[in-house]
Amino acid sequence: MRIVVFGAAGSIGTAITAELIHRGHDVTGVTRSGRASVAGAHTTTGDAADPQAVALLASGADAVVSAIGPRHDGSEDPLILATTTRSLIDGVRAAGVTRLVAVGGAGSLLDATGAQHVDNPHFPEAVKPIALAHAATLDIYRDTHDLKWTYISPAASIEPGERTGQFRIGGDTLLTDKRGVSRITIPDYAIGLVDQIEKPTAIRTRITLAY
Ligand SMILES: NC(=O)c1ccc[n+]([C@@H]2O[C@H](COP(=O)([O-])OP(=O)(O)OC[C@H]3O[C@@H](n4cnc5c(N)ncnc54)[C@H](OP(=O)(O)O)[C@@H]3O)[C@@H](O)[C@H]2O)c1
Questions:
Q1: How far apart are CA 15 and CA 121, in angstroms?
Q2: Fewest beta carbons within 10 Å, which of 66, 92, 116, 181?
């Protein structure tokens, strides 16, 4: 398949690109800086916030992946993610591509009481703005009825680690292991995301991946 990955040089985008290359797909990785991602992927410069650029880059793709995130140095308001997501959706639509798979956030997942994880008093204050921005993008996806999107929330903790292929797929509820910990490695998350490109089981819905 021909896949265009926005944010391909990020921590998660790199693993997704590597997983796609590993499975023999033709991948174009896009970032604003044009930073190379993984050997075997085409690298190009582009801004997901520019719908015309997105349309040009996405044209002819079988699927588009969004692995974008605001800069970590505080130079960008996390809420930029919401406006950028609108532009990305507009560009993908203009390209005539219907499949869009997004790396989401865990903050909007529901805990056992039905409350959003981000509203838990123990939720780290420092990551609240980005968690709320991701919750806003989920609302944007949920209002998008003409594209086959999938929004994939990672577990609360997503870190580098082993590629095991052993994880669970959930819906709107935060998945935790026997110790009550919600976690997944980046390579396993990438497997679950690429599975949704090859054999979609969750169209126009949010899923989560965790152990
Ligand atoms: N548990 C959780 O909820 C959780 C945990 C970790 C990450 N996440 C989310 O997962 C996403 C990816 O995380 P990450 O750690 O991989 O982020 P990252 O390492 O900061 O990578 C983000 C990538 O997106 C690119 N990018 C940003 N804005 C762009 C734009 N407008 N157009 C094109 N490319 C753009 C960046 O490159 P340039 O700056 O060069 O464009 C970079 O390659 C983020 O949205 C993050 O918030 C969620």
A1: 32
A2: 181
Q: Is 122 exposed, middle or buried (0-12, 13-18, 19+ CB in 10 A)?
A: exposed
Ligand 1 pocket mutation, candidates 31, 54, 57, criterion most atoms within 8 A of CB: 31
pLDDT (tens digit per residue) in 136-192: 999 999 999 999 999 999 999 999 999 999 999 999 999 999 999 999 999 999 999
User: What is the Å distance from ligand 1's center to 71 Cα?
Assistant: 7
Answer whether 11 contacts ligand 1 (Cβ < 6 A).
yes
Q: What domains, with CATH codes, occur in the chain?
A: 2-210 (3.40.50.720)
Global pTM reads: 0.98
Give the pLDDT of residue 48: 98
